[in-house]
Design a protein that fits this description.
The complex is a heterodimer of chains A (410) and B (384).
Chain A (H helix, E strand, L loop, with lengths): L1 H40 L3 E8 L6 H20 L3 E3 L2 E11 L4 H13 L4 E3 L4 H14 L2 E4 L14 E3 L4 H14 L4 E6 L4 H17 L2 E7 L9 H10 L3 E3 L4 H14 L5 E4 L22 E5 L9 H14 L5 H20 L4 H8 L6 E3 L2 E3 L11 E7 L8 E8 L3
Parallel strand pairs in A: 1-3, 1-4, 4-5, 5-6, 7-8, 7-9, 9-10, 10-11
Antiparallel strand pairs in A: 2-3, 11-14, 12-13, 14-15
Helix pairs in contact in A: 2-10, 3-4, 5-6, 7-8, 10-11
Chain B lengths: L1 H28 L3 H30 L7 H21 L8 H30 L4 H21 L4 H6 L1 H9 L6 H6 L1 H20 L1 H11 L1 H6 L4 H27 L17 H11 L4 H20 L8 H7 L2 H15 L18 H25 L1
Helix pairs in contact in B: 1-9, 2-9, 2-12, 2-13, 2-14, 3-4, 3-5, 3-12, 4-12, 9-10, 10-12, 13-14
Classes of the chains: A alpha/beta (410), B mainly alpha (384).
């Protein structure tokens, strides 16, 4: 009976906390609101916001963006902060989890804005980001998405920018690679129900048509979390595809898509896009690792191919702080913070409207870890991509990720 | 005497609803950032969760059939409302989101969302409700997934039509999607929708139809033997439930301004999915509409404040780590509720304002009967 009472007390506490938090949050809001707006009033901290999927099935994306953002902020603060006019300001970050869901993303964005934050990095996926672009625009808050690649995210929204390239560019790069390597018959397995996958497929198919590549087979699956691709790849094999374009995320590539494609008898190149990055983390234990040979993907960034000082500094700082090699989400999140810093210093203010005006200047060149670029008039960087792939030789303990070459449109 | 008491209860409830509505209208007129950025969106989200949970309760609690695809109807409603509002805008019926013309479109979209979902509910219900228990659960589960896939693959709606950046901003700029300011301005729409839908559902379960479906829940064979047309009432309830789910879809489209079918799936990261709506009904109490309201609001607040409230950061570090995985917290909350209130927070009772004066007596009676039960058990043990 005592145990029961204790537990019910716990429940009651839970509920009361939950119900009273609305009232309680007001006080902290004011204090953090102060720090957020302090940039203008002469305090010494500028708080930027970050939204990303920190839990859920796409958590790898969010946590890596977070790692990149935190590293950038640490570096900037150690180097004396952001200089606006005569004063210098330290940076701080307020992080929100959207679980990869658009409603949660909207709530997170609103919460950040009500905390007085003017500059936001987020979210990691196109679906979530598309839900908050309109809020950013109507509330006048600058949003830089590190990895939202859907073409239309930035087109109609003045306050939305990104540090990655857009899907159609990625699809064009993939088609370019296929044409360069002399393939003539390509196949596509994609998910027509998903913004990312179908956007890439459209861009790839258009570019193939323009380059004279024949699409011999095209198959769609029901969802991005599909676990059976056998039928699709049987059709690819019987149609004689030499290369199959597979715009999926890493969570299905490792355990399902690649092994099933190989067991269906497909031996050619599986070419994906940036979502394939991190596949090495989802390969099941005891899997035949040789099947991951010839799995390639277009990516934003490769540590091996990034030779500029900024990139080298980023890689060594990241390895020193986290003890692992950074991936493109780390780099893009890191870049977003540096782009903000450059824009704030250019306009001498941390206020959203001035930063937006500074970012909208298409002549400014940003030199960041993923390359040197300037924004086009929609807010998307003009830059190059890289081709990466997985390779495994008999006797290795694990597959290794290799950077093949830098891709740019000819 | 009894007539009089019923009359008083109606009057009290009616007055309470008017007060509630006035509060929502008043909130919409207030200004301020907290109001606009936190409270108004929360009221919108609560409004669709409340109607959603209550409408599922009609099927799950009152009819006694497990439906796992309820969000499918919501998806139909959301897309129907969004497409209709965009069509009106393209036809030049309204240009800005204010005035009588837009209000008419808003009404038409909400009604059309309900009707289209109800039609689909009828279509699904006729074959599905000949099945029982697990089989019905499976067929509704399948239906929910089919709907999501059909919508995804229709070129004019689906992901490509409405959720990609510019298209979603089309819904936001010219269609039904509300910005934060418009959410404030039309806050009363959300309040009115909840009040009207809940009143209709209460009237339904208190009517002869409601008695008939409760009879079916308690004993189908006996109900059938008493002359109740079992399949007719089942399909009727299912259709009505789908109608209200469709209306919530329209509210969702207004509130979120970007539609993605993953929001209506069987499970996902957020608290809006078919499974979580079932959880709300169970936590609130199967067969208690007020229970569903309470559960929807409590679970929404739990979810919202875990992510955006200040109290989590006030906790010690090891507890904060638990709260970074919100799904873990919901399951703990669910376990606790089921342990202590196996029939949900409200059981099959309804919350009534007029009953509040009797609460002390009831609570006392509850504890005396429990003490008596315990004593009896002890006695039994010592004898055994």
């Amino acid at each position: 009976m005592k145990r029961r009472k204790l537990l019910s007390l716990l429940l009651a506490l839970c509920m009361t906390f939950g119900l009273t938090a609305c009232g309680g949050s007001k006080t902290t809001e004011e204090s953090s609101g102060d720090s957020g707006s302090a940039g203008e009033s002469g305090g010494d901290t500028i708080t930027i916001g970050m939204i990303g999927p920190l839990t859920g099935s796409l958590a790898v994306y969010g946590t890596h963006v977070q790692a990149g953002v935190e590293l950038a902020i640490e570096e900037i603060n150690a180097a004396g902060g952001v200089r606006l006019g005569d004063a210098s300001y330290q940076l701080a970050v307020e992080i929100k989890d959207d679980q990869g869901d658009s409603t949660e993303c909207v709530n997170a964005m609103n919460a950040l804005i009500s905390d007085g934050i003017q500059l936001v990095v987020g979210s990691a996926t196109s679906g979530c980001t598309s839900a908050i672009t309109s809020i950013a625009n109507s509330e006048g808050v600058v949003l830089i998405t590190p990895s939202g690649t859907a073409d239309s995210l930035t087109t109609t929204m003045d306050y939305v920018f990104r540090t990655c390239f857009r899907d159609s560019f990625q699809g064009e790069l993939a088609a370019q690679y296929a044409a360069d390597e002399g393939y003539t018959k390509v196949g596509i397995v994609y998910c027509s129900a998903d913004t990312y996958s179908s956007g890439l497929r459209d861009a790839f198919a258009d570019a193939c048509a323009a380059k004279g590549l024949e699409i011999v087979a095209e198959e769609s699956v029901a969802s991005m979390t599909e676990v059976d691709y056998t039928n699709q790849f049987n059709k690819m094999v019987s149609a004689g595809a030499q290369l199959v374009f597979t715009p999926f995320y890493y969570d299905v590539m490792g355990p399902y898509l690649v092994p099933q494609a190989r067991s269906a008898g497909f031996t050619g190149v599986l070419l994906g896009a940036d979502g394939v990055d991190n596949t090495e983390t989802t390969i099941p234990d005891g899997a035949d690792l040789s099947v991951y040979n010839d799995v390639m993907f277009v990516n934003h960034y490769a540590t091996e191919l990034a030779t500029s000082d900024v990139s080298a500094n980023f890689v060594s700082a990241y390895e020193a702080k986290y003890g692992e090699t950074p991936n493109n989400f780390d780099a893009l999140g890191y870049d977003a913070v540096y782009v903000y810093k450059a824009a704030m210093e250019a306009c001498g203010s941390s206020d959203a409207a001035s930063v937006q005006a500074a970012l909208a200047d298409t002549s400014v060149v940003y030199e960041v870890s993923t390359g040197t670029f300037s924004f086009d008039d929609t807010g998307t960087p003009i830059k190059t991509g890289v081709l990466m792939g997985y390779s495994y030789t008999e006797g290795d303990a694990a597959v290794s990720k290799v950077a093949v070459k830098t891709l740019s449109l000819s | 005497m009894k007539q009089n008491r019923i009359k008083t209860r109606y009057l009290v409830n009616f007055a309470a609803l008017i007060v509630l509505f006035a509060v929502v209208v008043g909130m919409g007129m207030l200004g301020g950032n907290t109001m606009k950025l936190k409270i108004a969106p929360s009221v919108w989200q609560c409004s669709y969760l409340i109607i959603m949970a209550a409408s599922l309760n009609l099927v799950l609690g009152f009819l006694g059939q497990l439906s796992l695809g309820h969000c499918g109807f919501m998806a139909v409603g959301a897309y129907a409302a969004a497409l209709i509002s965009l069509a009106f805008q393209r036809a030049g019926f309204y240009t800005e989101k204010a005035g009588a013309a837009f209000f008419l479109v808003l009404l038409i979209s909400i009604a059309a969302a309900g009707v289209s979902a109800a039609l689909l509910g009828l279509l699904v219900g006729i074959p599905a409700l000949r099945l029982k228990g697990d089989y019905l659960a499976i067929i509704t589960l399948g239906f929910g997934m089919i709907i999501v896939n059909v919508i995804n693959n229709l070129p004019f709606c689906g992901q490509q039509g409405l959720s990609q950046g510019s298209a979603s901003s089309a819904l936001y700029a010219s269609g039904l999607g509300f910005s934060n300011d418009e959410k404030m301005q039309y806050l009363w729409v959300a309040g009115l929708a909840v009040i009207l839908c809940m009143t209709c559902m209460f009237m339904f379960v208190r009517s002869k139809y409601g008695r008939a479906i409760r009879a079916i829940r308690d004993n189908e064979i006996a109900a059938s033997a008493s002359g109740i047309n079992v399949s007719y009432y089942k399909v009727l309830t299912f259709t009505i439930s789908a109608f209200f789910a469709g209306i919530t879809g329209a509210l969702y489209a207004c509130c979120n301004a970007a539609l993605a079918t993953s929001s209506f799936s069987f499970t996902n990261g957020s608290i809006l999915n078919s499974v979580f709506i079932v959880v709300m009904v169970v936590v609130g109490g199967m067969g208690s509409l007020t229970g569903s309201v309470i559960a929807a609001v409590v679970l929404f607040l739990l979810n919202y404040t875990i992510k955006n409230g200040a109290w989590v950061s006030a906790l010690p570090a090891f507890l904060q780590n638990v709260f970074t995985y919100p799904m873990l917290v919901y399951s703990i909350a669910l376990i606790i509720v089921i342990m202590f209130r196996p029939r949900g927070i409200m059981g099959s009772r309804e919350f009534a304002l007029c009953d509040i004066p009797q609460w002390p007596g009831r609570i006392k009676a509850y504890f005396t009967s429990r003490a008596a039960g315990k004593a009896a058990r002890k006695e039994g043990k010592s004898h055994g």
